[in-house]
Amino acid sequence: MSGVELRQLRTFEAVVRHGTVTGAANVLDQAPSSVSEQIRALERSLGVALFARTARGMRLTEQGEVLARWARGILDQVEQARREVTGRPQAVRLGALETIVATYVPKVLARLAERRPGVIVEVRAETSRDTLLADVTAGRLDAALLLDTGDALGDLGFPLPAAPLTFVDLDPVPLLLVAAPDHRLRGLRQPEPGDLAGEQLLVNVPNCSFRMAADKLLGPGPRRVQVGGVAVMRAWAEQGLGVALLPEFAVDAALRSGTLIDLGLVAPDLHLRLIWRADREDLPGLRDVLYAASA
């Protein structure tokens, strides 16, 4: 790729990730005009159009898809060479959903610090599971933390990209069905999903891990009321506006204070699952670092 500059590849990657020149410019701390010019220069150098410009943003062309696969490997090799020449410690780019960043990532970082001192972890919080999966697939992240269940990746019910992803389970994430203290099912020895027929089940958007778990466990009986994220579901449940299937870490304080009760429904744990591309394990030390994070 004669004439192609590394800064152009980094800019190309940023546009691919954010979908717009403006989004890439914000991340790179550059003017949008500078980002646009670098992309045009890259296209002139290669003699092909890398993006189709649309009203909704930048969409990769077929040639752009090919370059996206090569660009990540080239940038990885450059970064590895820089580390070896300068003696800088290894850096792992770890993504996670915001809820997990706040609750579980500190434990993972503590394990890494104990077992692989000197390793630098760059943590990026995301609101979308699909974005994390896409970034691991494209090599923009080395690994990501997701919530899942079962023996295979995606058993919770979310779609997977066409990439050789593998995983290790780190921690169980217990789920509790909670409600206000005066709920009619309080005191029932062990409620079954059928006991919730007609109840209001407080949920988030359809691709939320906790909603997907509730859908698998409870079936169609409870009436779904979409209210928002974990904090909103918890607050509505405290006010007696419905029941919610939530992670134990999110309702611990409310259970202790008595503003919520555990209805005692038996629910399988979710798994905190660390995923990465199996074909990237040859990056120096990556596999050791990933397994060092496990419990």
Characterise this structure.
The protein is α/β, with parallel strands linked by helices and 295 residues long. Helices cover 42% and strands 22% of the residues. It has helices at 6-18, 21-28, 32-46, 62-86, 98-103, 105-115, 129-138, 209-218, 230-238, 248-257, 286-292; strands at 51-54, 57-60, 91-97, 120-126, 143-148, 165-173, 175-179, 200-203, 223-226, 244-247, 261-262, 270-277. The strands form 4 sheets. The protein has a 5-stranded mixed beta sheet with strand order 4-3-5-12-6, with helices on both faces. The protein has a 3-stranded antiparallel beta sheet with strand order 10-7-11. Helix 8 links the parallel strand 8 and strand 9 (223-226). Helix 2 (21-28) crosses helix 3 (32-46). It is elongated and about 70 Å long.
Q: SSE order in H/E notation?
A: HHHEEHEHHEHEEEEHEHEHEEH
Give the biggest sheet.
5 strands, mixed
Strand order across the largest sheet? 4-3-5-12-6
- Sheet-strand content, in percent, reads 15-25%
Q: Average pLDDT, to the nearest integer?
A: 88
- Helix content estimate: 40-55%
Please give the count of helices.
Answer: 11
Any idea what the shape is?
elongated
Class by helix and strand content?
Answer: alpha/beta
Number of strands: 12
Rg estimate, integer Å? 23 Å
Oligomerization status of the protein chains: single chain
- Unreliable stretches: none
- Straight-line N-to-C gap: 44 Å
